[in-house]
Amino acid sequence: MSDSILVQQRLINQQLAQPLFPNSADLVAWFGAMQAQDYAAAKWGIGLRLPNTTNAVIEQAIANKSIIRTWALRGTLHFIAAEDIRWMLALVRHRLESICRSHYRKLELNEAVFAKSQAAMIRALEGGQQLTRPELKAALSGAGILTHDLRLNFLLGNAAFDGLICFGNRRGNEFTFTLLDEWFPASKRIERDEALASLTSRYFTSHGPATLHDFVWWSGLTVTEAKEGLDLAKSTLFSELMNGQTYWMGSSALTYTVPAMVHLLPSFDEYLVAYKDRRAPLGLWSLVRLSVQEMAFLVRSLLLMAEW
């Protein structure tokens, strides 16, 4: 497999070329999860992959609860299809705990504090309430819970990891939090092996060709867990060698030749952030074959784009 074929396959699988899906929920489900720490950029990333969509259409998908924004893979914010949110959180919950453990110790956060804070959140949010961060902070402080420094971040994050809270509708320009069980009570729960196989298959189908270490980076799972996921999903995937590495994907054949065009990607887009090695998505393997003049032209073009 050449680097140009790899890039073309990723453009197709990432839905940047020949997009297939009619709505935000189906698109997000295809990816498994889509990075959403920058809210406007995340909506842009969805919109790029949905022909003829608008910002209002994506906002409506969030409002009607077909996609949900919460802290998930690697402890960062993602959009997840509502139907997938519970089994995905259950699958990665232990890794989120591991990532945050040292911060918990420094901030004197333990199971007793988390239990007390979550009880306070339930009291404040039950009945369909949607509260802004300052309002939720006030509720926690009123319950005698310290929310200084980064403590509030980790209290909210921990509650999201447990599937207690998620983001609700925006109130003006402010984000709100609400109880997940009231926001979307019916999402499915599946057994651990089925969940691991599904996440693995979705990653390599939507992001492939990609390596095992790319998947480890994206999912936040351990190498051992990622290998187990590959074993479980291997029957649905294909593999090819490139530059001494094994790349996995959902299909070994290109469906069509991707025409040359510019893709204006937002920050933290899945096309870039979802890989441990980010040279291939930009075609940087081929830069070694550029002449000095071609390289200078490329650099000037990138600088002009940055200024724009």
Would you summarize the structure shown here?
By secondary structure, the protein is mainly alpha-helical.
Give a description of the structure.
- This is Winged helix DNA-binding domain-containing protein.
- InterPro entries: AlkZ-like.
- Keywords: DNA-binding.
- It comes from Spirosoma telluris.
- GO terms for molecular function: DNA binding.
- The protein is mainly alpha-helical.
- It folds into two domains: 3-14 and 190-307, no CATH class; 24-183, Orthogonal Bundle (Arc Repressor Mutant, subunit A).
- The protein has helices spanning 3-13, 24-31, 39-48, 55-63, 85-106, 111-125, 133-142, 151-161, 180-183, 192-207, 212-219, 223-233, 270-273, 292-307; strands at residues 34-35, 67-71, 77-81, 131-132, 165-167, 176-179, 238-242, 245-249.
- The strands form three sheets. The chain has a three-stranded antiparallel β-sheet with strand order 1-3-2.
- A hairpin with an 8-residue loop joins strand 5 and strand 6.
- It is globular, with a radius of gyration of 21 Å.
- The model is unreliable at 285-291 and 297-308 (pLDDT under 50).
